[in-house]
């Protein structure tokens, strides 16, 4: 299989540049293995590399193939003009795939590069967003997260702190002094 590797901001992308038609699910698995061996987690194939059965959803070939890419945590861009197909279900399938962003359908290779880059930005945002939540949770200012010297303690300190339960009960005791218990 003629794989060309592209080093982009979104990582290493393997593009199938041949007239090979991937007719069986095993052909796609072989392609994933070759790309993965090269270090690529993203792949580009062209419409002419796919059999017409791929675009007839009732054959289930597209679903099987896309499930493999999902199972093996690979991203795929399929390049071509899909407006030639009159199937509403196929166009719905393409639209939904492009929303999820694991498998995308693009008009050009450059458009696919852009979609992969967008996926990276979304992934980075998600990671940073979750880390900010974690950090802000652990840095919540309250009296029981300071050490003997008044400095903030890291969260793992509480797992080793023999006085944690005592401090926790002191905190509850102070809550009760303000009124109703």
Task: Describe this protein's structure.
By secondary structure, the chain is an alpha/beta fold. It has two domains: 3-130, Transcription Regulator spoIIAA; 141-176, no CATH class. 46% of the residues lie in helices and 14% in strands. The protein contains six helices and five strands; from the N terminus they run ββαβαβαβααα. The chain has helices spanning 25-37, 61-71, 88-100, 109-138, 157-160, 164-176; strands at 3-8, 11-16, 42-46, 75-79, 103-106. It has a five-stranded mixed beta sheet, sandwiched between helices. Strand 4 (75-79), helix 3 (88-100) and strand 5 form a beta-alpha-beta unit. Helix 1 packs parallel to helix 2. The longest helix has 30 residues, at 109-138.
